[in-house]
Amino acid sequence: MPKITQKIPVIVLTGFLGSGKSTLLQELLARENGQDTAVIINEFGEVPIDHDLVRVGRGELMRTSTGCLCCTAGSDVRGTLYELYEAVESGDVAPFSRVIIETTGLADPAPLVNQLVAGAMPAMGLRDHVVARHFVLAGVVTTVDIITGEITLENHFEAAKQVAFADRIVLTKTDLAQDPASKRDIDLLAEGLRQLNPAAELTDRHGEGVDLDSLFVPRNYQPASLGEDVLGWLAMDQAVSAEGGHAHGKGGLSRHAARVNSFVLTSDAPFAEANYKRFMDVLVKAAGPRLLRVKGLIALEDAPDKPLVIHAVQHAVFPAVQLEAWPSEDRRGRLVFITDELEEKPVRELFEAVLIGRPSAMERLRNAIGLGPKPTRDA
């Protein structure tokens, strides 16, 4: 007898790089209501970080996909959902009541929505028919960071589309706004979001009486209620897919600007704390808005068994969080970079210069990424 007898709701959690998606998901999964949730985490880059940082509690099932779900030829989202379906039917995992897909911060939501809305995209085989019968898109939650939200919306079209497709918009990091001027900026950002998507429900993550669970309650998600722009983007995606231009790389249309670059730096050796701080200081000052996101795990010499979670977005470096232990058997320090017109080579040279302490390499690096030579003192 089939174990899945009714449609399982799928909630898409999206938002630009560094906007707080993983933090929001972590908080949800820590609650009792999150214990029967299947989670799909999609990451941009070769080395997944978020699946290590989101701790999966008892009874949850996680599937991780690297690359970009929104750009995969065929039906990768449907394929992953089918794997979840088979895992339940075979008895490998217990049934779950919902699925949450956390997208990469660069995701275009149009292809995801098209693959999950019944009849929007043609089925590629029996697998897709099974997914259509057993899963239903039941909401899109978009996070917007109040610190970088305005400039991100201005400079990155993906961020604006993520807002436009949402039926729930969550303002994050509002707890960092203490003075009246910052709070006025939040009001202006909220007003801009309402103009971009008047149909979405807007929530202050740190507002009084906020019900986190309500953001992920299944509902009747209707793209038609979100305006003509959303319907137009969905139709455009259907046309592009029909012409075979859905994938990244040669022969396909890239959904991300060619200037966006992703790379990972790893180290088997721990950092001296002073060197780590120097590395981040030089990098953020030099790169600024070109540094879309840095996220990862590093070890310090003073506590190699308790790694630090590193997170920086554009000009903002957030306080490192120390874990009690490494989250997996991989104990390498690793930082995943997503940049805008910032090449890997100078950043890697800076990383190596700080790690092994080569002053000449540091000076070359300062010139390469835009800081120029460090002033010298007169004797």
Description of the molecule:
The chain is an alpha/beta fold. It has two domains: 8-216, Rossmann fold (3-Layer(aba) Sandwich); 256-365, CobW-like, C-terminal domain (Hypothetical Protein Yjia, Chain: A,domain 2). Helix content is 35%, strand content 23%. It has a seven-stranded parallel sheet with strand order 3-2-4-1-5-6-7, sandwiched between helices. The chain is globular and about 55 Å long. One of its GO terms (cellular component) is cytoplasm. InterPro entries: CobW-likC_sf, CobW-like_C, CobW/HypB/UreG_nucleotide-bd, P-loop_NTPase, Zinc-reg_GTPase_activator.
Question: In short, what is this structure?
Answer:
The protein is of the alpha/beta class. It has helices at residues 21-29, 50-53, 76-89, 109-116, 126-134, 149-155, 157-164, 180-196, 212-215, 228-242, 273-287, 344-356, 359-368, and strands spanning 8-15, 37-43, 61-66, 98-102, 135-145, 168-172, 201-204, 260-267, 291-300, 303-313, 316-317, 321-322, 333-340.
